[in-house]
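Final report, closing paragraph on structural work. Over the funding period we assembled a curated collection of sequence-structure pairs, and we close with a single example.
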Amino acid sequence: MRPSFTLNDSVVRTSAPPIPLAQAWAASYDGALGPLLNLSQGVPGTPPPPPFLEALADAARMEEATRYGDIAGDRTLRTALAKDFNEAYAARVSEEEIAVTAGCNAAFYTTMLALCPPGSSIILPTPYYFNHAQTLSQLRINNIPLPCSAHDHFIPSASVAASLIDSSTRAIVLVTPNNPCGVSYPAATVLDFVRLARERNIALVLDSTYCSFLPKGQSRPHDLLAEPKPTGEEGSDWRETVVQLHSCSKDFAIPGHRIGAIVAGKEFLAQALKISDCFQICPARPAQIALASSLPSLIPFRQATREALAHRSSLFLELIARVPGWSVSSAGGYYAFVRFPEAYGADVTSEEVARRLAGETGVVVLPGSFFSDEGARGDADKHVRVSIANVGDEAILGVEGRLRALNRSFGMKDDV
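Its predicted structure, as stored:
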């Protein structure tokens, strides 16, 4: 029954959460090719280590954990995060420059609300993370797409971004390592963007959700926070331009506990915390307490996860290379952005491919169209996003036969 009252048009016009839709496509799968393989959502495939679970059980019994905490998050957790962050980035970030949020999506929502009045604009590389686009829609912020192509492995261009900046632009958003494309942007690319943002007096917002799952040979996603500063940046201070968003969900396999963070200068955080006070007051206390005490013991688990994902990604790249017509345009961390065969037909969309892949072969992925706006699909609509994180190596190897089955369904032969 429709309500008699009026709803917010900005929310009504926002697209519905896409993952449940993709998962519903698997309802018609008959199981003929084996168990369902859900590769649609970027979630950790293993539980967190015992030290966190034991600390969480202890925290749940604490009277202190039932009380309100600091709006910015427990100081003990912010101190632990600062230490971890500084070691990862060779930085000098203090706990006063970190605000804990209820997950990284809350960090992004808070940041956008702090930066952007209705009618202002954000430059968002496309394909984009769909929750970012949903946030902009709800807040009446214009989403200005920065097209990225498969030819360039979906790495954005700062020079193209410069041509999109106008008086309404408040920030450029980069996600590296990227969701949905997996690619880690070169440090020089990120440096180009921070220089552009500084020159044009706008913010550079860096979503670093997947920062711990880098390709071999890359120690950190960028050098913007590093001390000493990169060549040419000696006189700059990242706090004037950069707002970095962080997630503990992927690092420590605790997505259900919703712990993220904003890393920024104190002046920005003072405004962001006004927002946090209104919709979260403080992040949930038990998980904060547990993570603060157990974080140092979780570092080996995070490193093992990075190595396991790198190995699984290599397996996936090898099997895709064996399947006629399929190719990987970019990959890394949790994801691979995979091009389906041109032989399927010029009019075949990524949504049709994903729907049939789920219904006919039992492999659930997300279509590239979920990561772009209608009219600005570009290369995205010829790809599907595959998440390799929430299944084991054996399940990944089972994808090959399913893709070959889909090829046959589209009229291709195995030797094409």
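The chain has 14 helices and 13 strands. The chain has a mean pLDDT of 94. We thank the funder for supporting this effort.
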